[in-house]
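In practice, a research group might receive sequence data for several interacting partners and want a quick structural hypothesis before committing to experiments. The following worked case mirrors that situation: the sequences arrive first, and a predicted assembly follows.
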Amino acid sequence: MMRDKIARRVTQVPPSGIRKFFDLVANVEGVISLGVGEPDFITPWHIREACIYSLERGYTMYTSNYGLPELREEIALATRRDYRIDYSPENEVLVTVGVSEAFDLAIRALVNPGEEVLIPEPSYVAYKPCTIFAGGIPVSVPTRAEDEFKLLPEQLEAKVTPRSKVLVLNYPNNPTGATMSKRDLEAIADVVVEHDLVVISDEIYDKLTYEGKHVPFAALNGMRERCIYLNGFSKSYAMTGWRIGYALGEAEVIEAMMKIHQYAMLCAPIMSQKAALEALRRGNSAVEEMRQEYNRRRRLIVKRLREAGLECFEPKGAFYVFPSIASTGMSSEEFAERLLREEKVAVVPGNAFGEGGEGHVRMAYAASLRDINEAMSRLERFLSR
Amino acid sequence: MIPARLTYNIYKPCACKNKKALQVITMDKKEEILKLLEGDARLTAAEIAKAVGLSEEEVDKAIAELEKSGVIRKYKTVINWEKLGREKVAALIDVKITPEREHGYDAIAERIMRFPEVKNLYLVSGMYDLSVLVEGNTMKEVATFVAEKLAPLPQVTSTTTHFILKKYKEDGDMLYDGEELRRLAVSP
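A structural hypothesis for the assembly, expressed as tokens:
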């Protein structure tokens, strides 16, 4: 009965390619999964313990719509300390239910029906659907492996129209592991200014960079007022299930986002906010340890992929590699399905991340060295057939 | 001195004969190698080499140096004997000592640490001087060791024996299975 009643803007979005693959993997036993987009660390104990303590103390209520004042304070402090960007904890910080919610709020706060949102692809799977749900029109901006999946100004320029309003950036990038240097970003900033765009920059992987220092887009000259800066705790502190993130921006746009947030969500869960506070105050050494461990895995997997004969650019951030499988002659879905069935290694087909992802697969190295080694040996066997 | 390694099941040196000029291995790389081995002593040189970005020969050379200089003491296995049903008895013993002229606590500590029953030995601040972890097959064995070997030493003025009832964590490893990773097999 309800089937015919579902809104068009929902039915027009195809089911997630990742979801489809998840169902396949669930039916195979003994799988080594490199398909997981989350850390393989359990949240550091001191963070979990702080949450337990807060529950014991009775912190079970709503918080301010913006989030706990002390958490906003700490977020502003960390952003100033790490990147020298100033946001007022008073009205320029919004604590959200993960960056996922923050992105949805940002899009809904900015986009009028029919306005275009520029999304560099391959991209994280949520940007396009969220844009459609908000009534906007997603416009893919393809990036290429030979450019290390960086966004080039001419690629962006080519897709700008009079209806373009928002540019989405996500560096370090899921699924490619690409990063953008300050100079790379400055070239993009010029296009942004010229066409009067605003930027939603999802920098959830900022702590996981392996060469050079991460530069937030908002840190560039004149970009603070054109940017909504999104970040969170899921990847750096291994806190995916806590669903806790934040948005930073000028007071007016943060207030607009808060307006949606207060009616749709009210506030982020207080226990997650308490845990996030502990993470910011005392979690830095754990983050660094995890980063170093990811870096060892990154070197290992890139080396072994190349030894196995797959072309693979060296990713400088996040915990993904995005090798080309063009040499096998298979489509990315066929490759992923056969690798799963024949060798029990799960990877995500690149086409799940947009058109530009075809001919690639995403492998997450958020797995132990041992598992990565074993998966690579299976891959070698698979490729030599 | 480092005991001979059981090369069939622990860190394996590479078989390459090609001993070309090796670059100087930085402290950072050495630390990375040590961290990897600390977590898993059975990693091979090839595996370590890929993870730290050195050649196998370089990893071999670095490990040989670390062994020679005594930074790597030996390769061990963390065993939960209780799980096997082979329970050992351990006791923490607080020992009060009269220090000796010229030697302080060192002479008596060196004497005590030579007993194979002594697993750990620390000089500590506070109410007593030496903290001794003694292990044996039975409670009686441990008690006999304290009564016949430790307590009668002339510098020892008193001992207090605490038998260990349950081990929760040893050398940084939790000896229980309460915590595990529960991730979805595929996620965005």
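Before designing any experiment, note the following. The mean pLDDT of chain A is 96. The first strand of chain A starts at residue 32 and ends at 33.
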